[in-house]
Design a protein that fits this description.
The protein is α+β, with helices and mostly antiparallel strands and 368 residues long. It has 10 helices and 12 strands. The longest helix is centred in the middle third of the chain and has 36 residues. The chain binds adenosine-5'-diphosphate (ADP).
């Protein structure tokens, strides 16, 4: 039998409290002392944890072979959610007067993730519902007398096509996002031809760039190291960034794409390459920069929708850059333009090690 001394229990990460048969605290480990602010023992649990549901549960199991689980929200600087397990200990010669064991498990991160998932589903449904409502409205109108008018029909069908395309784009982006999230922890292991990727992107966007009268200039620095990556995903990254530069950049002003060697990638300190996409458009307000990669976040919602944006492009970029263990930096000056820099590390991934985490930091500094 392993002796469970106070000092051993002190190393348990979950707050743990032992109570006697009258609900007084006999022992609290370090995590419990900190969480519940317990400075001494011997007092009723109610003095440290004034939670009626917790106290009820404890009263029900004290000295009995029974357990209860209760969700508790503890106020503080930030509200934290805990799941509390309380297990009664029936009296026996070797239980040293312990009547119940109480263990709290921090569920804050899990609850937040659940909330984010729920918000995401609500947002995605809302985004799909508005084009769908428009389509249904037009179909109903066309079924009525207005449907026999040739001009009305042509105009409405045009709008319906646009709304249907918007839904299709949104579904494509939602699927991309979930695909990227699934393999985000698996770093790509094959070398990638960045110049080839950028050529494919500029070709794919050539018509859009021509219509907007925005030339795309791509420049390469010298001594570029090889980077590992997945071409299809990096194509999505640069298509999103260059398409945004066309959409939100100034008409008639060129977009500069510059690929250069980077001695130190921000956040990791490794060497690699930096691919900078610079436009000369309206810029982004400083307070919006940290939020750009949130799903469905748009600085100007109407503007994004009018240019066919889904609000998911930069969220997809963030996840792909993370998967490549890279880094995304956004710099912008209102009225002057923005630069989105994607850093990709040069080192080949070392086999057999756990992949390190990529980061996305978004300092809101001005374009120098
Ligand atoms: P969207 O589909 O709306 O373009 P993104 O996730 O790609 O979604 O971008 C989010 C928001 O960031 C856009 O709605 C826009 O407000 C802003 N944004 C992105 N790129 C630029 C840029 N180059 N210049 C100014 N604003 C930008």
């Amino acid at each position: 039998m392993v002796p469970l001394t106070d000092r051993i229990l002190d190393h348990f990460p979950d707050p743990t409290v032992l109570l006697d048969g009258r609900r007084s605290v006999i022992y609290a480990n370090g995590a419990a002392r900190e969480l519940l602010d317990i400075t001494r023992v011997g007092h009723d649990l109610a003095m440290s944890l004034r939670h009626p549901r917790v106290l009820d549960a404890v009263d029900q199991v004290l000295g009995r072979d029974e357990t209860r689980t209760v969700e508790v929200i503890l106020p503080g600087n930030t509200t934290r959610n805990f799941e509390m397990f309380v297990s009664g200990v029936p009296p026996a010669p070797d239980t040293k007067g312990v009547g119940a064991v109480l263990v709290l498990r921090d569920m804050t991160t899990a609850r937040r993730a659940e909330q984010m998932r729920a918000d995401f589903v609500a947002n995605a449904s809302h985004e799909l519902r508005s084009p769908l409502a428009a389509l249904l409205g037009f179909i109903e109108t066309l079924e009525g007398p207005a449907g026999s008018d040739e001009d009305t029909r042509t105009r409405f069908l045009g709008i319906m096509l646009r709304e249907a395309k918007r839904m299709a784009l949104l579904i494509d982006d939602l699927l991309s996002l979930s695909r990227v999230e699934i393999n985000e922890h698996v770093r790509p292991t094959a070398p990638v031809d960045i110049a080839g990727v950028l050529l494919n992107v500029t070709e794919a966007l050539s018509v859009q760039a021509k219509v907007a009268n925005v030339p795309i200039r791509v420049n390469y620095g010298s001594n570029l190291p090889t980077v590992h990556g997945e071409a299809d995903q990096l194509f999505q990254v640069f298509r999103n960034l260059i398409e945004n530069a066309i959409r939100y950049g100034a008409k008639g002003e060129a977009i500069d794409v510059r690929v250069e060697a980077a001695q130190r990638i921000p956040g990791s300190g490794r060497s690699g390459i930096a691919i900078k996409v610079t436009d000369h458009g309206e810029g982004i307000p400083e307070e919006a920069i940290p939020r750009l990669t949130e799903r469905f976040y748009r600085v100007d919602k109407a503007r994004s929708k009018s240019v066919g944006g889904t609000g998911l492009g930069l969220a997809i970029v963030k996840h792909i850059v993370n998967r490549h263990r890279g880094h995304l930096v956004v710099e912008s000056t209102l009225g002057k333009g923005s630069t989105f820099t994607v850093y990709l590390p040069a080192e080949p991934p070392r086999q057999g090690l756990l992949p390190g985490g990529g980061t996305v930091a978004m300092p809101s500094s001005d374009v120098s």
